[in-house]
Structures are given as C-alpha cells and as structure tokens.
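Friendly challenge for the regulars: who can give me the structure tokens for this chain first? No prize, just bragging rights.
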Amino acid sequence: MKRLFFTLICITFSVLGITQDNNPSSEKADHPFRIEIEPTSYIAKGWSLLGSYGIDKERDLSVGLYTIASTLPSGLNRTMFWNVEEEDEIRLTFEAAATLRYKIPYFLNTESNPYIGLFFGWEAFTHTHATTAQVTNLSNFFLTPQVGYEIYVFKERFYLNPSVRIVYEFGRQTDFDNLGDITNSGPVIRSFVWLPSFSLGVRL
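First reply, four minutes later:
Bragging rights claimed.
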C-alpha cells in the first residue's frame, strides 16, 4: 500500500510538470502551496509528507506541517543514539512538526535559490535489540535548523531539495525511569546530530 501511495505521488508530480502551459508568463504565476516527500522514507517502509503555504507576497516565506515515519538505516544507529549496535533495528514510528522556511532570493532571475528553515515537533522511536529482541520505546521533542537549496528542474514547479538538518533533541523520555550511568542505561537519543536530507517537491 505504501509503495502504491509513493508511486501515485511520483506520477502526480510528473503529470503536474508535463502538463504545464509553455507560456513563460505562466511559469511566474502565483503558486503558494508546496508539497514535498522524501523518497528514502518510502523505501525504508515508511512515509513522509510536508505541506506548506507561502505567506508573503513573493512566497519566499512559508509555514507548514511535516510528518514522517521510517526504519533508520543501520549506519545511523550510533549517529543518533547512545548504547546501540548497528545490528539493532530502530524505527521512527511517528514524527510531527511545524515548519518555517525562508527562501533567500539571491538569484533574482530564477526560482532556484538557497533557503534556511526550522522544524519544531515531537517524535517517537522503537528500538529492538538484535540479540535479545528487547523492545524499548523512546520519545522526545526536537528543534531542527535546516539549510537547503530548491533546485527547479521543470517549469519552475517541480524541484529537488537537498539539505542539511541540525537536530537538537530535548525532553527525552525512555522506558527507563532513572537513566543513571548512560553507559548502562539502554538506548538513549543523542542530544545533537546533523543529518543530510533529500526531498522532491512541487508548487501548486
């Protein structure tokens, strides 16, 4: 079902791009809404969706809502958590955030420009130990500054979005009432981590 949903989204993006009017004036039309997905989340048995709306006249400043779920690549286990092994399975079961983004109009003759952004929200993980199969639930709030670049590839509607996110975790909660010595407390979310990200987006 998730693969079908991902395929439908990709087809929608393609149709929106192919069916646009070739008149250059239409390319500059006002399209305040944006929808973005992260393809890797669907590959990792999850989903992602960001919907945003441009609130200023130039549509450079936007606010939105973001959600994602996926299984973490094993290479990220130790990057994001203390006291875990690469063989363990860690799943981001749910994340929801409010977003703020400002696209910097550095290149005035094109929509492709860098931007800065901010995420604030809550997330929940499950950690399954590879040997004992013990399951630990973890959750926390996060604040994530983001730096990225919207690269428009067709009609100034469809774009690629590579970025770097710097995640600050706080309010950590786990199944352990008293963490005590962090080396003996089970999995713990690290308080700071930077992550690369890539998404596909379309302006509506």
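The first strand starts at residue 33 and ends at 37. The two ends are 25 Å apart (CA to CA). Your move, everyone else.
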